[in-house]
Amino acid sequence: MLTSYFSSRKSARSDTPTPGFHNNERATMRAWEQYVEGRLETEEIERGFAGVRPEILKSWDRSSDWGISALSDATPTKLTADHVKSLSQKNQSLVSAAQAAFSRLAPHLAESGAILILTDKNGAIIEAIGDPQTIDAGRDIQLEIGGVWAEGVIGTNGIGTALSTGKAAYVHASEHFCLGIKAWTCAAAPIFDPLDKSVVGVVDLSGPPNIFRPHNMALVVAAAREIEIALYEDLREERTILLEAFIDLPTPPDNADGVVLLNRHGRIIYSRNTDRIPFPRAQQLGIGQILLTMRPEMTGGQLAEALPRELVTKGVELLKTEGETRGAVVILPGQSVSKKSSARPSSVKIAPRVGVNEDEIQIVGNCPKMLEAMDFARRAAEANVTVLVQGETGVGKELFARLIHSHHTERDTPYVAINCAAISGDLIGGELFGHVAGAFTGALRDGKAGKFELANGGVLCLDEIGDMPLELQSYLLRTLEQRAVYRIGCNRRRPIDVQLVAMTNRNLRLDIEEGSFRRDLFYRIGAIVIDVPPLRERGKDIEQLIDHINQTVARKFGREPLILDDSARAALCAYRWPGNVRELRNTIERLRLLSPGDHVSVSDLPTEITIPDDDMLLPGDHRTLIPERLNLDAIESVAIQRAIELEGGNLSKVATSLGISRPTLYRKIRIYGLDRGK
User: Fold this and answer.
1) Is 3.40.50.300 the CATH classification of the domain at 358-531?
2) Where is the composition biased (Polar residues) (predicted)?
């Protein structure tokens, strides 16, 4: 009979069961000895051993099939320092995600007799913290950084068994397959990838048998879940960065094209229209799949060469932020479309919300800035990121919030809107975040769910966000960062999944400089920024809007549409519309209500339109005009053109001097029609 491990280790032998452990150590040890010596009858194996759990017996079988020596004293595989360094770099996202959990647990492990271990998907240890004496003892069996603890290397153990089964596992003392590690107990839980749910690593708590407690399993499972959440948040941030870089491409792909976004490792983190692509290995285009192996020095052409040969592409472009390659976009040719269907739309229709008695909404416009704004809204909905809609009063910012909501996959997702300027500062916190009973004067007796909770699973529209009190901005920032809400007066965390669409007619950058708006919140709410142009900058859209609103108003009042003569139409088109689309709608409604007939001439128009101040006329009017008042676009256009001249046409230097990415610079040069210089 093999010598019992109890006499071969430094630790004291104990015949009493470990507290909370139901197995009999002596019975388990006898069963193991009989197992490895092959002295067990088939019927004994089939009915199981007394003191041996079924999952342990299965692991012993796997260990035996792998040819593991039951007399091994330690894992035979230990990686070199260079290999460990390379492995840590390869698993940088996993190491970073585990940092918070390990830092939080470190003080509690210092004198616990235990060590907390992080491994990669193959069982190689890449991080270990805990009791110094236990860490030192672990070196005897290579339970240390660089040691490999897969079942196929060292047999039954917490790390290896968790990897083999994909489930949390504990292996106590004599349950280990190899003799040399039976003086240890371990509890381990696998860490799952948030994209494809594959196992990417393991969290393990190991130590001498006397540290075993039933809650050890709960601890490692909780740590693994915390790491998975951190991985998910990192993934969302990476996805947002890449989508922003994609949106800033100088030449965006056609709507019908397939799009695949790759991170810096060549892994697919976003795709669209790939179901239409004729590709034999369609599953290879799924989220989480590795499409190719990327290296930092690769060009777009080299990436295209590295793609599967049977994958037909229209192009591959690197996605960069601040000069650093963050990933790439692969453009795949979509289904052919007719000229009619590929023509630029003059309007976008938004269907009524489910369960809401409302009319269909239309966004009318064909000017480049409006088309770009509508495209950004569609992309923002697909990416499910925060959006900041900027524009003057009356331009129709709320329509873009509705447009984003209409692009959500499920039509019945909630849409909740709140105007931050319409509610007093004392009450807006309770309206947004909810409150518990007695949280403040006037709080409801039973408490109340806030707008964030009501919008869970859908879109929350915050109008006039620039008017939010400064003290509540930090509360909003925490809600967005944690994707959870805390009702006022309550510490309970309520997870939420809300796409925030913030709107403002203010220059928030000026508010930041004046100290009335938080800089960190500005960048958090503006993952994608949509600039809705004022009506005076939309060219021929004005005529389309006049006709569209005329028809809509006629249906509303049960009247015939107005018939505008040439002089009236010309005056309406020449007016600068300081109140934008809202003012145009009000004007046509007033004309329809007050006109006795259907015909309208210039004499029927309001005097502010027919005899405007000079600066209320559009350029090109017959009068001598005061120079057009500068707006933000004009200032930005002048600044970019001046920077191009100063840098001699070197667009890389221009982007650096302006503090924007090159894709953003290219897009703005195209929008403003600027001279790129040399």
Assistant:
1) yes
2) 1-17
